[in-house]
Specification:
The chain has helices spanning 3-26, 30-53, 63-68, 76-86, 104-123. The chain is mainly α and 125 residues long. It is globular, with a radius of gyration of 14 Å.
Length: 125
């Protein structure tokens, strides 16, 4: 798979994950929706990793680590969102780290910020 195909793969699956996040949150499955929000941004960053390095991205879920391996420059608010999203990835997979569920209002705000960041990342490709 060439570089362009890899980038398309990461972006197209990120779009699916964002749609899934929206559906889950709107149906009250907040933690699952936020997990898919994280996944969307992870994949968008991995698309940039491929663009920047022409290599396969690391098998990491850490958004800030992945960002550090690209030429992307995010605002502090965007980095803060990445930190928030990190709460809902690995921790949700193990019972001892299960995060508390935010309010629907907070979840909708996180989802809205995720959509904006995703569009920003997509435009930079």
């Amino acid at each position: 798979m060439g570089t362009a195909e890899q980038i398309d793969y990461w972006i197209n699956t990120a779009i699916d994950d964002l749609q899934t996040a929206d559906l889950l949150i709107s149906n009250g499955k907040i933690l699952h929706g936020l997990f898919f929000s994280h996944l969307c941004i992870e994949k968008a960053i991995k698309a940039h990793f491929v663009r920047f390095t022409a290599d396969i991205p690391p098998k990491s879920h850490n958004l800030l680590y992945l960002l550090s391996k690209t030429d992307l420059s995010l605002s502090e608010d965007e980095k803060d969102l990445c930190s928030i999203l990190m709460t809902y990835q690995l921790e949700g997979r193990y019972p001892e780290y299960y995060p508390s569920t935010p309010s629907m209002k907070s979840a909708i705000e996180i989802l809205s910020q995720t959509k904006l960041l995703f569009e920003c990342l997509k435009e930079k490709l």
